[in-house]
């Protein structure tokens, strides 16, 4: 299994200014090609990637929730994957809120050309031998789930946007590697995002083989995420890294 961080932007200002790319995360596991949370710019970043990543070759798109920085390029990728809705091809994993009701983010013509698997809390899904699991529901103001992907030798988990809770620790305790969305440097009770102190608590409690921080807001960028990662590694003894745009990790 390997992943490539096409973008590492978090929060509205960093997305709007593109101080970091707001593109999603590309995942390869076995012969499956997947994009997680394709925010604005994902299609462009795939085209500029070396080697180039072809959206038409995708097997699935995963959305963790409806917010724009996680779904901005979802329709463009689904259109490419289905060749303009001419082929019934590929899967969309997403909470019901993404595909139904007034806040849905996927266009009707695409829903007729793909198979949709609606995500629910703490559930396992199969896709031609590929397994995907969800976490408990995250506390983020909209329907949100983390994503857990088993591979030979471990499990990579994406702890996406949420407010910290003790229940999160139990939900992610089986993860060997955790990718954490860390928007905030300092915790703010009224903002439903994780902060540096939350990463420290997660590392000390779960002690995974590795943690990768991503999805940075301005406070984190000013603090230099790689320096924050070095500090947390020294303090916790857990290998903690900060993602950068274009960074690849091979598990």
Low-pLDDT parts are none
By CATH's scheme, which homologous superfamily applies?
Ribonuclease Z/Hydroxyacylglutathione hydrolase-like
Class by alpha and beta content: alpha/beta
Instruction: Give the helix level as a range of percent.
Output: 25-40%
Measured distance between first and last alpha carbons: 5 Å
**What's the number of domains?**
1
Shape: globular
CATH C-level class is: Alpha Beta
Q: Strand order of the main beta sheet, please?
A: 6-5-4-3-2-1-14
Cα-based radius of gyration, to the nearest Å: 17 Å
CATH topology: Metallo-beta-lactamase, Chain A
Helix and strand element order:
EHEEHEHHEHHEEEEEHEHEHHEE
Number of DSSP helices? 10
> How much beta, percentage-wise?
25-35%
Mean pLDDT: 96
CATH architecture: 4-Layer Sandwich
Key structural traits:
single chain, 251 residues, alpha/beta, Metallo-beta-lactamase, Chain A, seven-stranded mixed beta sheet, 10 helices, globular
Description:
There is one protein chain. This protein has 251 residues and is of the alpha/beta class. The chain has one domain: Ribonuclease Z/Hydroxyacylglutathione hydrolase-like (Metallo-beta-lactamase, Chain A, 4-Layer Sandwich). The protein has helices at residues 11-17, 42-48, 68-71, 74-81, 96-99, 108-111, 166-171, 196-206, 218-222, 225-236, and strands at residues 2-5, 25-29, 32-36, 60-62, 91-95, 115-119, 124-127, 130-137, 145-151, 154-159, 177-181, 210-214, 240-242, 248-250. The longest helix has 12 residues, at 225-236. The N and C termini lie close together (5 Å).
């Amino acid at each position: 299994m390997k992943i490539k961080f096409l973008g590492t932007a978090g929060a509205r200002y960093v997305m709007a200014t593109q101080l970091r790319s707001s593109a999603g995360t590309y995942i390869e596991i076995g012969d499956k090609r997947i994009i997680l949370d394709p925010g604005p710019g994902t299609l462009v970043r795939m085209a500029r990637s070396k080697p180039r990543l072809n959206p038409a070759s995708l097997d699935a798109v995963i959305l963790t929730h409806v917010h724009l920085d996680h779904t901005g390029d979802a329709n463009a990728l689904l259109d490419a994957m289905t060749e303009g809705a001419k082929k019934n091809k590929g899967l969309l994993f997403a909470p019901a809120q993404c595909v139904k009701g007034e806040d849905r983010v996927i266009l009707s013509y695409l829903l007729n050309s793909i198979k949709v698997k609606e995500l629910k809390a703490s559930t396992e899904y199969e896709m031609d031998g590929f397994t995907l699991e969800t976490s408990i529901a995250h506390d983020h103001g909209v329907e949100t789930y983390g994503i857990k992907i088993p591979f030979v030798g471990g499990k990579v988990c994406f702890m996406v946007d949420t407010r910290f809770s003790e229940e999160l620790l139990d939900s992610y305790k089986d993860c060997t590697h955790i990718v954490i969305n860390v928007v905030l440097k300092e915790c703010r009770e009224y903002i439903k995002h994780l902060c540096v102190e939350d990463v420290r608590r997660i590392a000390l409690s779960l002690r995974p083989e590795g943690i990768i921080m991503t999805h940075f807001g301005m406070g984190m960028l000013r603090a230099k995420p790689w320096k924050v990662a070095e500090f947390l590694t020294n303090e916790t003894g857990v290998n903690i890294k900060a993602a950068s745009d274009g960074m690849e990790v091979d598990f």
